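User: Structure tokens for both sequences below?

Assistant:
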Amino acid sequence: MSGGDPGVGLRGRRIECQALDRVLAGVRAGESQVLVVRGEAGVGKTALVTYLLENASGCRIARASGVESEVELAFAGLHQLCAPFLDRIERLPGPQRDALATGFGLSPGDPPDRFLVGLAVLSLLAEVAEEEPLVCLIDDAHWLDRVSAQTLAFVARRLLAERIAMVFAVREPSDAHELEGLRELRVRGLDDADASALLDSVLGRPLDERVRDRLVAETRGNPLALLELPRGLTPTELAFGFGLPETMPLTSRIEEGFLRRLEPLPADTRRLLLAAAVEPVGDATLLWRAAELLDISADAASVAELAGLIEIGAQVRFRHPLVRSAACRAADTHELQEVHRALAEVTDADRDPDRRAWHRAHAAVGPDEAVAEELEHSAGRAQERGGLAAAAALLEEATRLTLDPAQRAQRALAAAQAKHQAGESDAALALLHMAQAGPFDELQHANVDLLRAKIAFASRRGNDAPPLLLSAGRRLEALDATLARETYLEAFSAALIVGRLSRGADMMEIAQAARAAPAPVSTPLASDLLLDGLALLVTEGRAEATPVLKRAISAFRSPCLSTDEGLRWGWLAGRVAQALWDDESWEVLCIRHVRLAREAGALTALPIALRSRIFVHTFWGELDNGATLAAEARVVSDATGTKLAAYGTVALAALRGGEADTSRLIEATIEDVMSRGEGMGLGISHFLAALLHNGHGRYAEALTAAESACEYEDLGVFTWALAELIEAAARTDRREVADAALQRLSESTLAGATDWARGVEARSRALVSDDDAAEPFYRDAIECLGRTRVRVELARAHLLYGEWLRRANRRLDAREQLRTAHDMFAAMGAEGFCERARRELLATGETARKRTPETRDDLTAQEAQIAKLAGDGRTNPEIGAELFISPRTVEWHLRKVFTKLDVSSRKQLRAALPDSGRTAVTA
């Protein structure tokens, strides 16, 4: 642990202290508070944290402190903060309780999703804060382990109505990016007057004014620098300024000052300081046991304490973190190894095996297989707790200590895989290069190729990923048929996402390889059927592929489907169901995908599942439900840092019909997907632009957008775009374009043979038919689509039929169809199509009222989402778990909802919400 110099550090800190007083006042008043105190080393951050601690009367305190030597130990900082409250862990909802218990090593289990752990910590702290305000102080946050930093940042961003204050102290500059965007207090140096006064008070003797001014200027008023830089200089050197350090970063100069103070100390004292510096938790008992092994005399500590460098009581506290750094810098390699060896010896192998292994690794003078094996076991425990970054670091260290070339290469590959899972692509590639130097067999070389392909896809989202995955699949065929088939399906997924932006292997090449691959070794899984069907679709066409793809969809709908298959391939199975015009399966699969992601706590998969579900709601005309899920997807993406193209949000906007806003969204999405290499996003964006323009009757613009969408056969999206192209071409007298598009659409709808398929084809055929022949097609379209959930397509069929009737001078018949279309679009909130129907009604002589905003439109997206879930009977804890907020925050939002909707109970809530009769949005 580290400590500051509070008395000196608060000189000239009135403004900063007032900011901390406001934090305390706010949390006592029941308002959540988050503050990141930033400043360079020695500027007084710890002093301010201590001030907050001393003035937090009436509040409960929870503390944690980052330690440089623990930065690779998963959950170390988080455990410090939560340890006093773990007796309450049983009060958490089951999934949260299990995730936190597994993360802290309290119980075995599958690796927990780190964001489910974050939700558990939020719930735990909120539970504590129900009794009294809770102040969480996290010092030296720049040295938190990665999982702890991400989790605490997640919690800080989710606070709203809890009586919790979170205050982080972070050294600048640092890599603590997780805390960026939170409210900050930047602590700068003292002004010249206060800095000069501080310098005069510690020197106790006159100082040449020019030398003093130089010291103040070069330290930028940093209190610790003003205290430390003059130490060790003779009066003569100080008087004339000859002994002042040359120009170097201020932190380095302060550390140099501490190094000068270490030099005259006895050897035993320096070794004791070194042992304290590399013992991460400040355990005084452990330190004394190590000191005994090192034959350090008992009076070594008193010398260090008299020098003002350390305090040793129940806990070990350094004067400042830079004393710890200086103690390590002052030691040579042999001394460091000796101290680590002693600490490893006194660390309990059963209670703290990971720290023991880490000390043994740093004590090793060369390759050591026994230590490498210990590190491997530690990495396994870290992975079980969800500490991927820690596991990667442990495996990398194990690789360094391995002499056998084959074993070294295998550990390097395992470390690369862990680095990839932890999101460290560059480090993963470096380890892969090391792994390739080993004497690998063919299977291991194939796994190297596969990992390189996955890294390429994850880091650049496409372009070169499909050919790399294809190559890996081919190499795996003779070695592991099951893995080869999985790899080909991954190649298909990558190729679908890359789409028209592919620069390597195309869909045909992947499909041909997949068809030539060995058959499944046992009963085909759902993913096997999906691979076979997609390969047939590309090589033989829809007629041949549809029976196999339908079997795949049935398998994905089966209750026997494994969670892993459902999570991994659910989005692709849903896309296939949509491409087959199977509206029922499309909805069922999307609902299941969302449910599986929620239940498993797979929060990186959840935004993808929600995005697919939003498209279902869009086509069903349930725009409010879709907006609710879009809000949830944003919450999850913000919490997890997952950056996905907002296709669902754009789809909702396109159907709502706001031209200016939607056009900007589409342009931003196109720019985004181009930078990602997601060609699929171009097809979706152009299709949605065509939908928007057709809704407003801007057929020339719709034609251009639809033609762009149809330049590449994006699975599923292509057939939607064909329908838009047919309508736009028919309305702009481009009959040849419409006829060609209808021919391609018919190939798809004939294979699908569902009411959705037949209805869209009939509606499109009516648009290009002569007057006498058009009406039966419109009637067929309405009849078929009326048997589906695809209400947007049905409303558009009524609209087009009504327009055709009006042009045939059958005004009464036209009014019936147009009124139905208008009412359906109005109920959905599809303003563009609604206005188009209203204009057509006016042309028949009938007036339709414009839709006016209602009170419910004043609800924010999150309020609407919470109100919907509460109206569906969900409890506050259940709502909080789904939206990553505490039950207290849910209650705070509901009070605002009740006021806006003028209701007083949950029973009244459902009736007051829009679309109360529709299917619940939860899956």
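Moving on to the next sequence.
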Amino acid sequence: MIALGVAARWLHLAAGLGLVGLVTATLLAGRSDRPTALAWEARMLRWARDLVGLVLLTGLATLAHQSTVVTGRAGAALQIGEWTRLLGHSQFGTVWLVRHGVLLLLAALLLLREREESSADRLALRGEAWLLAGVGAAAMAWAGHAAAVEGIGLPAALLDALHLLAAGAWLGALLPLAALLRAGARVEGADARPFAVLAVRAFSRLALTVMILLVVTGLANTWFQVGSVPALVGTSYGWLLLAKVFLLIPILLLAQHNRRRLLPRLGGDGDTAGRPAMVRLGRFVAAEAGLGLLILLLTTGLSISPPAVHDPIWWPFSQRYAWDVATALPGGATRVLIGVQVAFLGVLALVVGLLLRSWRVLLVGAGGLSLLTGLWVALPPMAVDAYPTTFRRSSVPYHAVSVANGAALFRAHCATCHGTGGRGDGPGGAGLPRLPADLTAPHTAQHTAGDMFWWLTHGIPAGGMPPFGGALAEEERWDLINFIRTLGAGEQARQMTALVPPGRPWLVAPDFAIVVGPAPPRSLKDLRDRWMTLLVLFTLPESRARLGQLAEAYNTLQALGTEVVAVPLGDGRDIIRRLGGRPPILFPVVTDGAADIAATYALLARGLGPASLSARGAPPLHAEFLVDRQGYIRARWLPGSPGPAWDALPTLTDQIQRLDKETPAGSAPDEHVH
């Protein structure tokens, strides 16, 4: 069934684009009264009718196949009821109805066309046919991956529609032109040779513009559906896309050969001097069309494959390259910058050498050497070991529940060697081939979540770390990784103060549920864009006075765009009753899940102050975090720590106003660690 579905979609796509290209070819060719040219036009009309019939027939086949995909039952392909539900309750169905309604109009236009009495009649018929064929082809974008791009579905679909139209105008015109060249190359077709030459030259001029449009829209589509180099080389979608690009290379080489070598030899006077070139050109154009059909087959595969941005990445190489690795090495960043400049000069020399014939050998040789030298200088400082799961995205969000579960798993499985604080000082690490890693050190941030997932799953034999793939479920391994990330982030956050520092935000606030009694639950993520958040970890009775101060200032804080969320440390039972008194606490106080939130944010609340606040990494009895509208922790206050304090409310409101005026430096953090 899958093979039949792919075949139906491939034929449907090829027929739809073929219609666009066929009408484009007849428009470019213009009008002629030569018998061979008239015979070619009549043949193109028959082809157009056949293609309309094929696209309508395969359209029914794609509808049947989509019914089996949606229902998961092969029998749904023959059930009209399932077809009706799909047509009436899905975007695929809506687009299908619109497209096939337009294609039926095109069929009627071709079957019931009147005699063309003038050039205006001829142009009107072909213009209307091109418009209908173009709408039928371009509308496919709204039933594909492009329309599902989050946030920018309409622009992405429009770009994909342009891509389809450009592909049809170029690829679909190849076979009609090959047929015209073949007819003109015959002895009896000499009358149409000037007509064929003019048509091919007009197409050659159009093809350059169309190819630029294909490249631009193709790059945009790649960005939307792939998004990164790892996704390009590490997913089935990316491999299909690369195969499509590789198939395009011989097509471009053939097109270049045709344009530079064969097209000038055609001549335009109708004699036999250009006949051999016309024969060869017709064959090469047909070969281009054949390769184009293979590209459409790969495109069909892309249309039924999950986009690379949503597919797990399986990295095929043993190394990767990262800028942050180079910056951690003495002189590494300088070496990379020098290498990049040398490589850029090499690329520039290669481009100039290809454009200038007189200096081509020298410039290409020097450019190639400069490019290789630049890469040899720039790449080694950025190299770091990589694994198949290096770029794999976590399936578990960066959430307080996950971090708390990871902490429990760490104590059970990892603390023996890595130590209770993750510093690599556990008693079980003494007899290992090498000491366990300090998970709080900065180097932890240089490894991806996928690296850690690989180590947890397969172990590190050289270091004596056993595999946990059999002992821990996949979600549990991601929970562990979320905990390790928070542990490392907490160590770096020990320098954070009550003042918002300049520069790009970096400390991501773990998400958590805000459950307050019977009120509908929200999450920290739900507050993004609209609210900044003051997260307060408190202990009773020590924090009661501070909570009262915040309660009195609550209206002011909300007017500044800040929500206050309080989470009890320690025993949270009956916390609402225990908070009773004056002034009343009107801001949210989390009642369910508070222990997980407190345990997670306690990792980010370790300071460098007096021993009573941070001895052995113990969290304080009270801590406050200021989270910006994007979801980054920008400042924190630990009572008793040196420096400015938020118990003087003007200090807090000054920092809030600073954040409120700030232009976001980047995108909101992903809900999954990387």
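User: Anything stand out in the second?

Assistant: The beta strands are 319-321, 383-385, 507-508, 513-514, 522-523, 532-538, 562-568, 623-627, 632-637.
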